[in-house]
Specification:
two-stranded antiparallel sheet; single chain; mainly alpha
């Protein structure tokens, strides 16, 4: 009983947007590690000229609204990332829910590209 009251009081003092963003980023990190890091690496640096970097990616910064779609449906054809051409097909992520895709996209945008302003509204 006392623990429940303490949790309720503590959580009422926390900005819910920050709390939810933290939970989503933690979940996004776990999902990214499981589904994306094998190719794009844990730090988002990519793999040689096979898989493009997600870290500080000009492609992502110029296509923020497409990140969810790319995760969900994959990517085919050449793309230019930070001045380097990549043409390795990225498979679709049919096993991920839309919510899981949003968590991964949020993680990539915020942690690798510092685009947290997209999520402050």
């Amino acid at each position: 009983m006392v623990l429940g009251v303490l949790i309720a009081v503590y959580s009422s003092c926390i900005d819910n947007k920050f709390n939810n963003a933290t939970v989503n980023l933690a979940s996004g990190y776990q999902l990214y590690e499981k589904n994306c890091s094998n190719c794009h690496q844990t730090d988002g640096s990519g793999l040689a000229q096979l898989y493009p970097p997600l870290l500080n990616s000009d492609f992502i910064k110029n296509n923020t609204t497409a990140v969810d779609s790319i995760i969900k449906y994959g990517q085919k054809g050449p793309i230019m990332v930070n001045g380097v051409s990549y043409n390795m097909a990225m498979p679709s992520s049919k096993k991920l829910s839309d919510f899981e895709i949003k968590q991964i996209a949020s993680y990539v945008l915020i942690k690798f590209n510092k685009l947290d302003s997209l999520y402050t509204n």
